[in-house]
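Note to self: the last two entries modelled the partners one at a time, which told us nothing about the interface. This time every component goes in together.
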Amino acid sequence: METLLPRDLDEALAAIAADPEATVLAGGTDLMVQVNLQGLRPARVIAIRRIPELREWVGRFIGAAVTHRRLEIGPIKALAEAARTVGSPQIRSAGTIGGNLGTSSPAGDTLPFLAAADAEIVLRSRTGERVLPWDQFITGPKRNARRPDELIVGVRLPEHLPARQAFAKVGVRNAMVIAITSCCVIRDEDGTTRVALGSVGPTPIRARQAEEMISAETRPSEAARAEFARLVAAEVRPITDHRSTAEYRRHASGVIARRLLERVLP
Amino acid sequence: MTTTIRTAKTRGVGASIPRPDGIPKLKGEFAYSSDLEAEGMLWGATVRSPHARARIVSIDAAPALAMVGVRTVLTQEDVTGSGRFGLAVRDQPVFATGEVHFWGQPVAVVAAEDRETARRAAAALLVAYEPLEPLVDPAIAARTGSTFRVIDIVNGDPGARGEVVVEGEYEVAMQDQAPLGTESGLAIPDGIGGVDLHISTQWLHADHAQVFEALALAPDQVRLHNAGVGGAFGSREDISLQIHLCMLALRTGRPVKMVYDRSESFVGHVHRHPARMRYRHEADRDGNLIRIEADLLFDGGAYTSTSGAVLANACYFATGPYRVRSVAIHGVAARTNNPTAGAMRGFGAPQPCFAYEAQMDRLAAALGLDPVALRLKNALGTGDRLPTTGQPIVGSLPTRTVIESVAAMPLPEPDESTDPRRLPGGTGLTTPRPAVRRGIGFAVGIKNLAFSEGFDDFSEVRGVLTTAGLELHTAACENGQGMVTVVEQIGRSASGLDRVTVVFADTSEIGSAGSTSASRQTQMTGGAALRAATAVRDEALRRVGGDRLDDSGVWRGDRLVASLEELLASGPIAHLERFRHPLTSPPNATGQGDIHAGFVVAAHRAVVDVDAELGVVRVVRIDTAQDVGRALNPLAVVGQIEGGIMQGVGLAVMEEIVLDQGVMKNASFTDYLLPTFLDAPEVEAILIEEPDHWGPFGAKGVGEPPTISSTAAVVAAMRNATGRELNRVPVRPQDIALGSHQPPATSHQPDRRPEGS
Ligand SMILES: Cc1cc2nc3c(=O)[nH]c(=O)nc-3n(C[C@H](O)[C@H](O)[C@H](O)COP(=O)(O)OP(=O)(O)OC[C@H]3O[C@@H](n4cnc5c(N)ncnc54)[C@H](O)[C@@H]3O)c2cc1C
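The predicted structure of the combined assembly is written out below.
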């Protein structure tokens, strides 16, 4: 196995252009699980964790190599709350937002925030840059639109990001657990509300009907909040597996969406 | 407070001295069996069945053997001896042959120059299977006679009827012991046809017999040595890689090492029996238990392992630590194509405890009695007879005291904190404080100590006096529970010497110490150590006419009459002790007899905060009082209590091997969830010291009771908070959020019997 340690983004892009089969390694917290459990044996590894451009976090741009630990202590509330739920301190110090996107697991904990915030994913190759809305980047469970010769450079958040935002994740254990369902709610001063959920569909899901309904409520009554929960539960597309049942995931999605709404209401 | 300084005794029994392996383990310096190495060592890897049941059509080793660095591939055809193993019954082939009976059953092993090559070679082996329909429902197995053991216990007046009746059905899922150290060992051939196996196990001699029998070697051609154990909890009582390692070493003539990875560990050892239980309790209007009927269906999986004894325990303790006038228990250990079940902390006692304690709560509700008062009213004690077997209880059994002690402990203050780490859902931020309801649950559990049913249960210790102090040689396995520490403490108190050390002996040097299980080593190997150390001291005193021994030598009054050197100049002093506990008998046809050597009880009170709408929980606190006989090392006892409670909490709220057609869906720590520190309750323990009749200094084993009733207490608290039925563990979020409510508490239908069996 050969490991390349490019010093900057150009070197990294040259390396991946030269060998699009190469495996990109950031914090390794997903990749090493594949090595240990699925017998993945990459021939060539491009390690990108130390590339300065990817570690940048400037305003609304978050570099791909920014760790969950940095997100956790960063200024974006719901993203910090989401990052806090990722694994253990060791995992948060190694794992990155770019890796979370690279894996595109339905249970990726930063993804509901990115979906609710209408984030864009910045991809770059030797031949140029592509900027994809999150729902064009994530195409299915553990599938995304990255071309083999591209690197995820980072995510770009919209300039206007409401301060009222909150995240929650339901699991069977009170820390270090894969989400049974997770949810992010962002609400603007004018009532415009966006709600995204993870682990209850092949990709993060925006509950558009629920959004529309609750955005029209300037001061949602208890009945309106219950209706919001009902709509969210109706819009998610959960499955039954060894972690939980579709029925419970649906129920819990509605409950936490309602509670998050209540958390962000003035 | 006055402190009496008795230099020779301060490190003896009663002292909370720390364990020698504690700090090295924390620092990563302790040598586990997975750290063993030998010059020229090969690595072994196992080929396992991907089917729960299948016919093996063919095995083609050629692709594996063709790989560079692969030294050998072995299958059942290469086994020389009986080719079978099993702790109680030798019913499992070393490798599956003909038909595979459970998912992950070994089919072949390979040895290669390095671990990676061995792994790839195992994957390259071509095995053709014809999948067959697996039998995975233990109820069908029981109906069709596919069983390991069936037990019927009848005691008391079968016509006795109570006016107040509660019935219930309960289920316990499959729990894993999940020791942090996976299965591992190193086999070194001796060049003359024999082999030395360094192994992390619970019982060297039982492994030893299974290895030499399976391979048709002479007993002295196989020597088993204790290697550093990373936890066991029952999972290492059965053979995993022992025979494979010895075969590979003998075939290749080279040392061979194997270490299971985490996923393989899940399939490589036995698990706690899943159980389905149906109960009927009848009481009179004053709350006296009149009759208990129970049907216990345990899924033993593919091979016998210890299913017979586990089921027996479940049946004997099916009624709990209570007096009952009339008992009818029917128990079945079913044989299926699910993973094999065997020993796990509590050994058949936790499953019925979950059921009978739920029944006691429901009975209390039906009677309008306080649950604690109902338990006190029926508490079993010394002088009573065990209601199932009819055995008189001659040792201590402070059931009343453990219940009263826990009930008297202060309850925690209501929690107003909004720190997510103190809320259900934890850092997931799911739960605002107002969504939380607090519940309190109480449970009591009982179990036997050491081996039962007439098993010839003994432990050997050889005491050897040297000029450096007293050595206590034993084949007992230190599984991390503190055996070494407590046996040394016993040796000190018995001999008067401070310099006392446990020396691990291999199977060629000493007889069996029995298993490190059944809460037995403190009593058994400790019992042997007490006698061996006493005999050595007596001989030392006799030889020079002294009245006291310490590290300087033998004293008469305040005069040193002989140093250790002088004493031993006239010949060595050693004593081999084989210690047995009071004899037990097998059960008669109705399950009656003096079947157990002793009993132990503990009570737990759980405080649990529940977010009922979402179904997430936080176990806030567990208060416990445990019958310990005598706390030989209080620090070690509390360590066992805290750890055992965590395993009980784990079963209550998250630990479960999920099976689909016999296939494990979560054989990794990603999805087999163990409690983290955020899930760990505060634990407060009271040690009840009423000396037992045969353990050293009155001590009882302490390892299992914390696990038995803590699960039941946690679930009782969850029912108390939510009003949900919660008749299955682990309780899943959906059981709370979407589950059914408790059935009406009262029923007065003394004539209705449970249908069938
Ligand atoms: C014990 C444990 C607990 C975990 N808990 C959680 C959890 O609670 N929530 C959660 O969401 N995740 C969890 N994870 C998964 C993992 O930590 C996260 O997905 C993390 O964000 C991955 O980041 P990484 O930098 O380690 O990715 P890596 O493992 O380095 O990479 C992941 C994938 O993305 C690709 N990749 C990475 N960076 C780039 C890039 N810049 N451009 C192109 N491709 C790239 C890699 O090639 C690889 O395919 C856990 C993992 C472990 C081991």
